[in-house]
Each structure stands twice: as structure tokens, then as C-alpha cells.
Specification:
It is built from two helices and six strands, in the order βββββαβα. The protein is α+β, with helices and mostly antiparallel strands. The chain has one domain: Ribosomal Protein S5, domain 2. It is elongated. The chain starts with a strand and ends in an 18-residue tail after the last helix. This is Amino acid decarboxylase. It comes from Companilactobacillus huachuanensis. InterPro entries: LpdD_chaperone-like.
């Protein structure tokens, strides 16, 4: 599924891929999409983020977008969720930065509404019991 929002002269996109009951969400947009951060979560675990260095050695701040989205959808997650985020707007203005918060909230709400309607009927994994071993 693809969700998007355009405000203040740029677009933010959330590509959501289902892998069994798990989600891979790619948040991109602006003039130079990239992967600046990776955030992971489940319904019952805290969000954890890795921030990659940018061209000048500072760490990317795209986790602000991913965390906002993750907190909105967390209670509806059927499995694990990995969110990559990388939105870069050349010479971004303070107003565009302010709008990014509302844009990511909107994307989170779009994804949440989709999750509430999505049927995740995938087979459950089968494991060996403690008394069994592979043959």
C-alpha cells in the first residue's frame, strides 16, 4: 500500500509492505529521499532507532517522523514493524519542518485506518517442542 500527503510544497510518502504479519514501512519524500534512520517496534515492545550519519557526519533526524507514525499504529500491529525514514527537502524552512510533524501524523492515521481494515490471515509458524529435534 502507498500513502502520501503533500503540504507546504513537498510530498511525504509511506510505502507499506506486508511480510506475513509483519510490516516494512518506507517513509520518503522531499528532494532527496534516502534512508536516514531505522526504527523497530511491536505492539508490546518499545520503539528502538538506529540513526545513520549524514553527509557532514551529523546523525539524521528522520526518526522523529518514524516514531510519530510508530506510536500511532503500535496498538494495531499484527506482528513486528520496521520503519525506514529519509525525507530531505533542500533548504527546508522552519514552516516546512513544522508541517512535517502534521504530515507524519496524517500518514500514521492513514496507515492505522488501513490496519484496522486489513485481514492478516497468514499461517502461524510451527515449531519443534522441547522434546523434538529435526530429523
Amino acid at each position: 500500500m502507498k500513502f502520501s500527503i503533500t503540504q507546504e510544497n513537498y510530498t511525504m510518502i509511506a510505502d507499506v509492505e506486508t511480510i506475513g504479519k509483519d510490516l516494512l514501512i518506507r517513509i520518503t519524500g522531499g528532494d532527496t529521499p534516502h534512508i536516514g534512520t531505522v526504527t523497530t517496534l511491536t505492539r508490546t515492545t518499545d520503539l528502538e532507532t538506529i540513526r545513520y550519519p549524514s553527509h557532514d557526519g551529523r546523525l539524521h533526524k528522520d526518526d522523529v517522523l518514524a516514531i510519530r507514525i510508530g506510536k500511532i499504529i503500535q496498538t494495531d500491529l499484527p506482528g513486528s514493524c520496521t520503519i525506514t525514514a529519509g525525507v530531505h527537502v533542500n533548504h527546508i524552512s522552519k514552516k516546512q519542518i513544522m508541517f512535517s510533524a502534521m504530515m507524519s501524523k496524517n500518514l500514521g492515521e492513514q496507515i492505522k485506518a488501513w490496519l484496522e481494515q486489513k485481514n492478516f490471515n497468514s499461517p502461524e509458524p510451527v515449531y519443534y517442542s522441547d522434546s523434538e529435534n529435526p530429523q
